[in-house]
User: Fold these one by one.
Assistant:
Number 1:
Amino acid sequence: MTAEFQSIPFDPADARAALKQLPERSAVFALYGEAAHAEPYIGRTPNLRGRLERLLLPSAKHPKRLQLAGRVRRIEWRLTGSDFESLLLQFELLERVYGAKALERMHLGAPSFVRFLGSNRYPRVVVTNRTSLRDADWAYGPFPSRLAAERFAEEALKLFLLRRCVEDLDPNPSHPGCVYSEMKMCLAPCYQGCTDDRYAEEAAGVERFLATRGESRLVQLKSQREEASANLEFEQAAAAHAQVLKAEAVRALASELVRPLSQLRAVITQASAEPAEVALFLYENGRLRGPAAFSTVGMRIQNEQSGSTSLFAQPMTLEPVPENRDQGNEGTREQESRDQGPGTRDQDDRDKGTLLLSSGQAAGQRDNQGTDQGNKGTREPSAKAVRGMIEARLDAALAELSAAGEAPNAAVRQGHLALLKRWYYRPEARRPGEIFFPDDDGAWPMKAILRGVGRVAAKSLAKASSV
């Protein structure tokens, strides 16, 4: 599923000979010393050879620069296709060597969550960065920061009458209450201002609001608005509409990543280190798994570099390429290809604004045209069949990623969640790749993921062609 690390010996007396063997590509590397128990130097870089030349070759211009040549005896590395993959691989290597200290080395703090204290007799909401598997059903997040989580919790509680106090309550009519009860923003269970059943009903409403990122409240309010409007009760309809706007504003404070921690699952697509592939990652059960290589052979990607203005206006798409398309015109095309020279059909594809990601397959088709023509009508798969094969290939890759493995420890859970949060909340222009969440039934949106694969592949091709 993942590429193996490559390794070469390093001799300080002939450092340049070893460094010449390294590629000038993005990679994660580890520098090992002579002693077996020595801790390796682990890092990531967009240019492996350039980075190690700075670390392992002495420089008279920079005498204070870190020099490791005298300590290193072996270099290991693995090429990566994206910063996301590099960070994940670097963390896994550091965690293997340093354990929980890897979190400090990569500055991976625990993400913030809004936690519903449902086990309390009178439930309330708190903001925390300490979550456990026991409370994963009631922890909602991750948020980009603690401030963002606190703002969401505060605005959400304005839509309900849940208590804000933090002490364990022992309801007594002699309790003085608080400012929230005086402002009618709390049901005041502290001095038995409501029954336990009424407070439990309000708490259940808050829990549903958090679990659905406000959708449950919006459905209720919109139903009340429509009912009041149908009964010509326009004042009630206007009040319900104002509440709808408030609920929508609160909902906007929580991104799509904010979910119950126990239900947080996502597929991430990233560029791959290998050509004609896209790297797939899966976040599930508190762990990031991947990359799984998904081959783009057999997929046609719209090519922005073709100069077709219509394609600039449309989103990146993909479509399956049947093995023997347009066979009725193959004889004419073959003759035209012989007359006009090799590469004509490839050029035609580029002129149409598409780029075939199976150049080897296309070459094979040209070599075997005579055989294909002899069997035409019997071997041509339909577009639906090819699309089904591509979806089956994606389903197999996701199944491989979700295969049962060992449960992650607390450090791995925190590190992987922090890496996902850090990548997701980057500005969109600086967040390469895409993320996809399951639907309400827990099924993956296969077609949407394939379209995302096409967009990632197209960007990788455009970047490669500009180099």
Number 2:
Amino acid sequence: MVESPCVACCRLDADKVCIGCYRHITEIVDWNRRSDTENMQILMRTKQRKAQAKPDSAAAQCATPITQEEWQAAKIKARLS
């Protein structure tokens, strides 16, 4: 099982990407339900995002905690895909 990259800093930027683990909210929900192959693909994308991120950027400063509403909407979207 591929370990989650979560660092317990769940704050989303304007693109709904967590500034802690660099996963999009749709990649965060249902992590444990995905296959190892899917999770490895997500980890590859997070590495790219992290490499492109600018430390202390305005986007990171405007990041907000994930709301219950955002979580539920992303969960529904993930399960419909």
Number 3:
Amino acid sequence: MTGTVEAVAYVIAAINLLVAAYGAWVWRQGSPPEDMLRRFWIGLRAAQAGALAFAVFVGVLVIAGHHPSESLFYLYALLPLAVAFIAEQLRIASAQTVLDQLDLPDAQAVGALPETQQLDIVAQIVRREVAVMAASTLVVAFLLARAAGTAHGL
């Protein structure tokens, strides 16, 4: 069973690593085309679903009586869910962070600006969101690789 758990963890880690790399590339574009952003968000959600599926898989193994020789495995297997949750909270806060940097009190104040400035602010918010989520997938990839490395005895 150890080999299966390791393989699954490495595959999901690789998916997260690819999403992190693509997210970094999207972020570097500054104001990427909509289809590029859409691919990033779809990849991100797939990577998050993979991490969730791995956690469920580990839970099923535990219920079935399979336990790793290192308890640290559980931390590496479940922490990606916490990382994704925290990253989502930071992503949600991205808009307010950008507004605060620009000394704008709220979204209604953005609506009063010329359209070009509005678009620039939206691009800044999206770019920050992509950066946060790409960084989170990098962390998740590392954690899942560590989970694979501590899966002995399953």
